[in-house]
Design brief:
This is Multidrug resistance efflux transporter family protein. It comes from Bhargavaea cecembensis DSE10. InterPro entries: EmrE. Keywords: Membrane, Transmembrane, Transmembrane helix. The chain is mainly alpha-helical. The chain has one domain (about 1-320). Helix 2 (about 30-50) runs antiparallel to helix 9 and helix 6 (about 105-110) packs antiparallel against helix 11 (about 255-265). The chain has helices at about 1-25, 30-50, 55-65, 65-90, 95-100, 105-110, 135-150, 160-190, 195-220, 225-255, 255-265, 270-280, 290-320, and strands spanning about 115-120, 125-130. The mean pLDDT is about 85. The protein is globular, with a radius of gyration of 20 Å.
Length: about 325
């Protein structure tokens, strides 16, 4: 249950992304600066945290040992995750971005066969592919039903341009984030702790963010002071706190695809927190009864995921005794 609690806390801090990205877009800020500034601000905080924990040497050594995987999977987990989200905020309201992002719940479950695990047989150890956890997939569908209910009252306002530019990028991000995160965990095999891994992946993704910032300077100029401040808040809340909490949770559950799916499903609460944030900060009106019913379905689905995780943990302990 610890990983579920960490996942829920992460979703609370992640929700800041959707609210402030939409706020920056309404204020005329460029999505390119919203994306790149977050990761620029993350670096000094992560360097300080890892340095205090005496982990810098190990982090840099691991990056030098396998630079290719770090660059590749950091690109998936960070660049193909966050750039599409900020881009989508320029074409879609916050509720649509947060709602569509919940596709990552099912994406994480469907990605299971791409990963291997070790099993012991009479002939020695063998590598086998994970199977899609059917129960977790079923519960994830319940959560997605809640997401659909939340979006139904607004569905009539979505045109073709919004679908192409505001939804398709989020679909890409929904698959890229869990793929990059899981592949990096698999590659490292626990050699770096959560803070070291987030730092190393952030540093590995910096060339891409520098390129994006350069394009921003050439096309839209420098960011406003308000966008810098809001990007700083996003960096601390979502980039440092939320990412670290979420990676801690996935580290705890990395050997069990069912538990891992439950952790990734906690992100469904982001839409609830984002909705509340937009109501408070952006004067979004109270959702109607259908949307409120969707929120209730999401919470019910999360409860089922937590219950399933608890049962699986007890069964594992019983088998070990």
């Amino acid at each position: 249950m610890k990983e579920i609690t960490l996942g829920i806390l992460a979703s609370l801090f992640f929700a800041v992304t959707f609210v402030l990205n939409r706020s920056m877009e309404l204020d005329g800020g460029s999505w390119m600066w919203s994306a790149s500034l977050r990761f620029f601000f993350m670096v000094p905080f992560l360097l300080l945290i890892v340095a205090v924990r005496r982990g810098l040497k190990t982090s840099f050594a691991e990056m030098q040992r396998i630079p290719g995987p770090f660059i590749l999977w950091s690109f998936f987990a960070f660049v193909l995750f966050y750039a599409p989200l900020t881009f989508a905020a320029a074409f879609s309201p916050g509720w649509l971005v947060a709602g569509t992002w919940q596709l990552t719940i099912v994406a994480g479950v469907l990605l299971a066969p791409l990963f291997l695990y070790t099993i012991k047989t009479s002939d020695g150890e063998k590598r086998a592919r994970h199977r899609i956890p059917v129960v977790s997939l079923g519960i994830s569908r319940i959560i997605l039903l809640g997401v659909v209910l939340i979006q139904m009252p607004h569905a009539g306002t979505v045109d073709g341009r919004t679908v192409l530019l505001g939804i398709l990028p989020i679909v890409i991000a929904a698959f890229a984030y869990p793929l990059g995160n899981r592949k990096m965990m698999e590659t490292l095999g626990g050699r770096l702790d959560t803070f070291q891994r987030v730092l190393a992946m952030t540093l590995a993704s910096l060339p891409f963010w520098l390129l994006l910032a350069g394009i921003a300077v050439a096309t839209v100029g420098w960011p406003s002071w308000g966008q810098v401040v809001q990007s700083f808040i996003v960096a601390v809340s979502s980039g440092v706190i939320a990412t670290t909490l979420f990676f801690m949770a996935t580290d705890l559950a990395r050997h069990d695809q069912g538990r891992l799916a439950a952790v990734e499903a906690t992100q469904s609460l982001e839409i609830v927190f984002a909705l509340a944030g937009e109501m408070i900060l952006l004067s979004l009106p109270l959702p109607g009864p259908v949307a409120l019913g969707g929120i209730a379905v999401i919470i019910a689905g999360m409860s089922l995921h937590s219950f399933q995780t608890l049962l699986a943990k007890r069964k594992s302990i019983a088998q070990a005794l």
